């Protein structure tokens, strides 16, 4: 039993015997706390143009909705939508983030940025300046054959080893293609999980896979401890191409959050290519959930 579990169990036991008044406030809080707590985050790509042109104003507004954490896309790798931010160092981008009332613990990097050792070393330095815990590859493992996937996963394992030596965790982010495109009848995503070294590369699950028939929580339970974060989306029950406020769509969020501890999640990021009302509604839903 770790320290946190011990404190929570002890406090709960004392409270049950009527001795709660003698328990320090920190222990009483531990007894009341259930499940796990994660800051509400959003993916910066959703507001790429606004953030690139007015980073402080846009992120301050999102912080006002209740978001605490922003997952950046590397401006160097995403030169199109984030070109105006490429001039900033990681340290400067961290200040912009913090001044808006947000933290940044994770960032997306393109396959091209991280699969070259020299480029990866520079990106690791950028990540340290930004204060990251997770460096997430935004795609690139998909292929036409199992051998190609195995080869690319070996590259990703090497990236993960370098990132781990630098004191961070490497992650891989899926899209629907890894589920829709199958090899010998199996989703490519399942092959990737077999080839990626769990000690070197964790997974960031995109909940949008539900529109292809795959639930995040099923993977969390089937592959415990393999995940570090998730991108959250929800869709209309009558039109699976239409995004809706979380809690009004097809995702069973109570079951999702019941499985996140098993999966190993540390962070969640809302990613809806929708209007601001949906992003605000999702923050409100997560706060009350």
From TrEMBL:
Pfam families: AP_endonuc_2 (PF01261). Residues 62-276 form the Xylose isomerase-like TIM barrel domain. Keywords: Isomerase, Signal. Transmembrane segments: none annotated. Residues 1-22 form the signal peptide. InterPro entries: IolE/XylAMocC-like, TAT_signal, Xyl_isomerase-like_sf, Xyl_isomerase-like_TIM-brl. SUPFAM superfamilies: Xylose isomerase-like. It comes from the Bacteria. GO terms for molecular function: isomerase activity. Gene3D superfamilies: Divalent-metal-dependent TIM barrel enzymes. The keyword rRNA processing does not apply. PANTHER family: HYDROXYPYRUVATE ISOMERASE, INOSOSE DEHYDRATASE. This is Sugar phosphate isomerase/epimerase.
């Amino acid at each position: 039993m770790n320290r946190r579990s011990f404190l929570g169990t002890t406090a709960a036991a004392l409270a049950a015997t009527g001795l709660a008044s003698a328990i320090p406030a920190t222990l009483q809080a531990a007894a009341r706390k259930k499940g796990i707590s994660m800051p509400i985050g959003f993916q910066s790509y959703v507001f790429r143009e606004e953030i690139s042109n007015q980073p402080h104003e846009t992120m301050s507004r999102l912080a006002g909705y209740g978001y605490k954490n922003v997952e950046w896309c590397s401006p160097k790798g995403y030169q199109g939508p984030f070109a105006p931010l490429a001039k900033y160092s990681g340290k400067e981008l961290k200040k912009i983030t913090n001044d808006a009332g947000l933290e940044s613990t994770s960032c997306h990097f393109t396959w091209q940025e991280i699969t070259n050792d020299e480029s990866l070393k520079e990106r690791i330095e950028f990540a340290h300046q930004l204060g990251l815990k997770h460096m997430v590859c935004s795609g690139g493992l998909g292929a036409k054959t199992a051998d190609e996937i195995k080869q690319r996963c070996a590259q990703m394992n090497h990236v993960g080893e370098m990132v781990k030596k630098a004191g961070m965790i490497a992650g891989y982010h899926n899209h629907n293609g890894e589920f829709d495109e199958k090899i010998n009848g199996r989703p490519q995503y399942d092959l990737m999980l077999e080839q990626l070294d769990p000690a070197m590369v964790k997974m960031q699950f995109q909940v949008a896979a539900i529109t292809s028939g795959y639930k995040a929580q099923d993977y969390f339970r089937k592959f415990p401890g393999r995940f570090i974060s998730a991108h959250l989306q929800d869709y209309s029950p009558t039109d699976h191409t239409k995004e809706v406020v979380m809690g009004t769509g097809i995702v069973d969020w109570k079951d999702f959050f019941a499985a996140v501890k098993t999966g190993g999640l540390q962070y969640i990021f809302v990613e809806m290519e929708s209007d601001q009302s949906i992003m605000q509604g999702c923050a409100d839903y997560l706060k009350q959930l």
